[in-house]
Amino acid sequence: MSFSEIGVKPDLIAALAKQKIAEPTPVQTAAYPLLLEGRDTYLSAETGTGKTLAYLLPLFERIDPALAAAQLMIVAPSHELAIQIQRQCCDLAQNSGRPIRTLLLIGGTVIDRQLEKLKKKPHIVVGSQGRLRELIQLGRLKAHKIKALVFDEADRLLADDGLPAMRELLHVLPRDRQLVFVSATEQEACDEVVAEIAPNVTMLRTATTPMSPNIEHLYLTCEERDKPDLLRSLIHAVQPERAMVFVHRTETAEIVCSKLAFHHLTVAQLHGAFNKEERKRAMDDFRSGRASVMVVSDVAARGLDIPGVTHVINLDAPSQSKAYLHRVGRTARAGASGVAITVFNEQEEQLARRYEQELGIALHRARLREGRLLVDDRPAAAAHA
Questions:
Q1: What proportion of the chain, given as a percentage, has pLDDT over 70?
Q2: 129, 135, 245, 354: least buried by Cβ within 10 Å?
């Protein structure tokens, strides 16, 4: 179906065309009528399928630009995801010509500036649960006109440590507000919370598998101390157009970036110790192509949609299959293909079987020889953005 066939208005279709988006994805097609009706809905779809637009398009229709009040609240578990969502809101409003104002409200920034911007009465507020709750408690963010609340990456937001804050947000919103839950994966504990706070929720599952079939999964094995040198050789071998390298710790990210930069590789880094401006600079460098490699901790693994990521490299192997899923989901988005490469030490190699069994994928052993990455003596498949 086309966007017009599912009911999207011409001005929003024109806005999407400016982003080179011509046809709706299955989750966008299925979600549009449900959310437009105001139903509480749980959107479950694999990474890279356009879940953000799946809820933004219908919820934009529910916003009254003439009403100078916050009408849509979107909560995200990380600053990077909140920034990305806010950017998409701004693009939709600007490219469609709709006078809809969006404000980003996250921690790690000067609150006085946010208080000043709240005086302009944004229609959409996007942010982290801590800052949103703080501004509501101060009486500066008015929530009585909120029509819909979106939990993006709901399985994280509704986990035990985040649940009390989310309950506080729900308590101050109107009783008839619409609730939208979004995630690429589901957990039993999260499902129980959703059933409690939204007993009439409509479950919308469009993914037969949480993993894109367009990803080639490879792994190499080496000593732990040799991982940084192997990474450098691996990058030279595959020549990625855009690669994300995942590590566990901030210290590791800084060491790896320093070593890659020493060998004249253009590299950015993104981790929890960075402030808002440093994170934004890293993302801008990577998105623009000024840096072809970005070394990240798991802070960037969830929800980010960065066009053209051809390779995901797990320099530190995730211990849980769910973490592997979200990391490698940064590539092969929107129908593109990609390559995921995990570097194991000898003790970690058993994780390959866990990923295969729990995610229904096949990991192939690879090796570097004479400057090439080989898989069963054949060159690894090239990823195309």
A1: 96
A2: 354
Assign residue 121 a region (left: φ > 0; alpha: ψ between -120 and 50; beta: otherwise): left
Here the tokens at position 103 are 């404000």
| Residues in the chain with pLDDT values less than 70 | 207-210, 299-303, 377, 379, 381-385
Q: Are 229 and 136 in a shared domain?
A: no
CA angle 21, 205, 330 (to 5 degrees): 50
Joined tokens for residue 225: 């101390």
Length of the chain: 385
Span 124-140, pLDDT tens digits: 999 999 999 999 999 99
Residues 333 and 219 in one domain: yes
Going from the C-alpha of 274 to that of each of 97, 292, 297, the distances in angstroms are 35, 19, 11
Asked whether 257 and 269 are in contact (CB, 8 A), the reply is yes
Answer yes or no: do 75 and 153 share one domain. yes
Neighbours of 329 (CB within 10 A): 28
pTM, two decimal places = 0.70
Those residues with Cβ within 8 angstroms of residue 205's Cβ, 6 or more apart along the chain or in another chain: 44, 45
Looking at residue 230, which CATH number applies to its domain? 3.40.50.300
Domain count across the chain: 2
Tell me whether residue 292 is in a domain.
yes
Domain around 162: 3-205
Q: Are 146 and 256 found together in one domain?
A: no
- The mean of the pLDDT values for the chain is 90
